[in-house]
Specification:
This protein is α/β, with parallel strands linked by helices. The chain is 38% helix and 10% strand. The two termini are 29 Å apart.
């Protein structure tokens, strides 16, 4: 497929913008290009076809089964989209007077209130743009708390080895020293290792429960107690909130602050890097440190982004919460657990589970034995799934499981879909056992086959470069 730059022909255009009817403002020459931007020149018809072709290459939850582990790629109800498309929400400007957007302000206030109720927090900000941004903001609160108390030595953050990959980066970017503690053979936090890790330099703990293995840690209250007794605070990574929403609250587990991925738990699928929204909640003693959006506050940790967060994603989240209601939210969480355990049971017929037994919203398979003894890998299975119209599970994560495939079917998949998908997984396994060599040539039906991933990582081509024509 050609790029727009390759389709470009000089003199072709599709400009329909009328001439400006106000005086043109002349920018200082220091801000201007020395030559015109090298933008493609293309007709409207060709432009429309180009983006239609790109659309056909994309894959989302509307196309088929999307069991991406720890991402909660649930169906986004169309009523959410309809609500977010209302003129009163789209035709606004963040700088217009507050009294002209009272409905939008009410959306923000209602969403904060409901999220506080669901999580057990006392205050909430909707400013962060996405999950990792919310993580960063949550750790800013913890850092600010210790600094305001004059306890400057607390610069150590404890992160379990089963944590999400962004957690260590978040701690480091906040000027913390990240200390990783190992999990038990069963996949839970090792309490003894945690006790050994905490001291008077501990700023806090970053933890998600259930964890990336899909396991709910029954010792969670003891975990947060250990950190609190050492003078640290507890931050909850809300990426795995989906199976517990409305059933158990992080605030009741002993967590002091939390981020939520509104685009996961509250139904705006986020494939392709967006859209996102990373709400951050906290207990009352941290509320004064929350980032400011409408006005600056004295002890705030600062401004984390422009204006009021990802507003239309927030509208969708509120529509989802109101649609489900008090009874529907825990029912949705329970359905996600049921679906995960049913799918896990079906695949257990042939796949080895990293942690046998009951799981929460997701589970992890390991193909370490198959890789060593039969020559096919988790990557081979993932690529084979593409030939069958299924988005692969998360590969090679968490890092504590070798040859890992992590699957999360979510609550919005039917029993029929799970059974059909399980058959494809099982048939692929049989094919790989019979002919592992053939699996290394998958996928074969996609637009792009299997790329050289090492070369792509080490020498990525990130921009188009015009080829010089030979004038001779």
């Amino acid at each position: 497929m050609k790029l727009l730059f390759e389709k470009s022909k000089p003199g072709t255009g599709n400009q329909y913008i009328p001439a400006c009817d106000t005086p043109e403002y002349a920018l200082d020459a220091s801000f201007l290009r020395e030559e015109e931007a090298a933008l493609p020149e293309i007709s409207e018809n060709d432009l429309s076809r180009h983006y239609s072709a790109l659309e056909k290459r994309s894959y989302g939850v509307n196309d088929g089964f999307y069991p991406l582990g720890s991402c909660t790629m649930k169906y986004n109800p169309k009523i959410n989209e309809a609500a977010a498309a209302l003129e009163g929400f789209t035709d606004i400007h963040p700088l217009q007077p507050a009294d002209t957007v009272s409905g939008c302000r009410k959306v923000l206030d209602m969403t904060k209130q409901y999220l506080c109720t669901i999580t057990g927090m006392d205050a909430m900000t909707l400013a962060p743009a996405a999950g990792a941004h919310g993580e960063f903001t949550g750790m800013m609160l913890i850092r600010k708390y210790h600094e305001m108390r004059g306890d400057m030595k607390r610069r150590k953050v404890i992160v379990p080895d089963s944590s999400h990959g962004t957690n260590p980066a978040t701690g480091t970017m906040n000027g913390m020293k990240v200390v990783s503690i190992p999990s038990t053979p069963e996949g839970y936090v090792d309490l003894e290792k945690l006790r050994q890790a905490v001291d008077d330099e501990t700023a806090g703990l970053m933890l998600t429960n259930p964890n990336t293995l899909g396991l709910f840690d029954r010792n969670i209250c003891e975990i947060t107690k250990i950190v609190h007794e050492a003078g640290g605070l507890c931050y909850y990574d809300g990426a795995n909130m989906n199976p517990i929403m409305g059933i158990v609250r992080p605030g009741d587990m002993g967590f002091d602050c939390i981020h939520l991925n509104l685009h996961k738990t509250f139904s705006t699928p986020h494939g392709g890097g967006g859209p996102g929204a990373g709400a951050v909640g906290c207990k009352q003693f941290l509320a004064e440190y929350l980032p400011w959006d409408l006005e600056e506050t004295e002890n705030s940790c600062g401004k984390v982004r422009s204006y009021h967060g990802s507003f239309l994603v927030i509208v969708k989240a509120l529509a989802y919460i109101l649609s489900l209601g008090k009874e529907g939210i825990p029912a949705s969480a329970a359905a996600s657990v049921l679906n995960a355990n049913y799918f896990k049971a079906l695949l257990s017929e042939k796949y080895t589970m990293a942690n046998p037994g009951f799981c929460m919203h997701e589970f992890v398979m390991t193909l370490e034995k198959e890789h060593k003894e039969h020559g096919f890998s988790a990557l081979d299975i993932a690529k084979g799934l593409l030939d069958n119209g299924i988005h692969p599970p998360t590969m090679y994560f968490p890092l504590i499981v070798h040859e890992a495939l992590m699957a999360e079917p979510t609550e919005t998949e039917s029993r029929q879909t799970l059974e059909e998908a399980a058959k494809i997984f099982l048939d692929l396994y049989d094919e790989a056992m019979k002919d592992p060599e053939s699996m290394q040539h998958r996928p074969q039906s996609t637009v792009i086959g299997r790329p050289d991933e090492v070369l792509a990582a080490r020498k990525p081509v990130l921009r188009w470069k015009k080829e010089e024509k030979d004038e001779g």
